[in-house]
Design a protein that fits this description.
By secondary structure, the protein is of the alpha+beta class. It contains three helices and nine strands. It has one domain: Alpha-Beta Plaits. It is 32% helix and 29% strand. A seven-stranded mixed beta sheet has the order 4-5-3-7-1-8-9. A two-stranded antiparallel sheet has the order 2-6. A hairpin with a 2-residue loop joins β8 and β9. α1 runs antiparallel to α3.
């Protein structure tokens, strides 16, 4: 049977503690202020991935999200992620969404990657990193049609069709 499960690092488009500007866009806090909570979330997510059979050194594509900081800021970050990192990025009303090519995962690798994403958003438009997901194929399936994202007891169906890289 073809089943895919996803684990979300943090909730996409989550309500944040950041002060909203007059346009309603949110400005990213300095990465050093939030890295501790992001690393703690990575630990919880890694534990969930291990329960799904993922081991350190495995390669997985990661889907990522940024909150909007306004149209100009979103475009600046999207252009940076495309040009400098080779990611395919979609600008949405709530911010940005994209996917990495398969990358080596593990606690340290994920922490380093998240740190890089925090700084990318902060330096290129001021967009706040809103999290990431990983889709894990269960049962040896070659190409999942849908995945399930698990986040604090909520489950939402998601088509696995974004192809981009960081």
């Amino acid at each position: 049977m073809s089943i895919a499960a996803g684990v979300i690092g943090v909730t996409p488009w989550r309500k944040s503690e950041r002060a909203a500007s007059t346009t309603g866009a949110r400005q990213a806090r300095h990465p050093d202020e939030v890295i501790g909570s992001e690393v703690a979330q990575n630990r919880r997510t890694w534990a969930a991935l291990e329960r799904l059979g993922v081991r350190e050194g495995a390669e997985l594509p990661l889907q990522f999200y940024f909150e909007t900081a306004g149209a100009d800021a979103d475009r600046e970050l999207a252009e940076y992620l495309r040009a400098a990192c080779g990611y395919t990025v979609e600008i949405e009303a709530e911010g940005l969404a994209g996917t990495t090519p398969p990358m080596t995962v593990g606690p340290a690798a994920l922490d380093d990657w998240v740190r890089g994403m925090l700084y990318a958003g902060y330096r290129h438009g001021g967009c706040a990193f809103a999290g990431w997901t990983a889709t894990v194929r269960l049962g040896g399936s070659k190409a999942p049609e849908k995945c399930q994202e698990a986040d604090a007891g909520r489950v939402a169906a998601l088509n696995d069709g974004i192809a981009c890289g960081f």
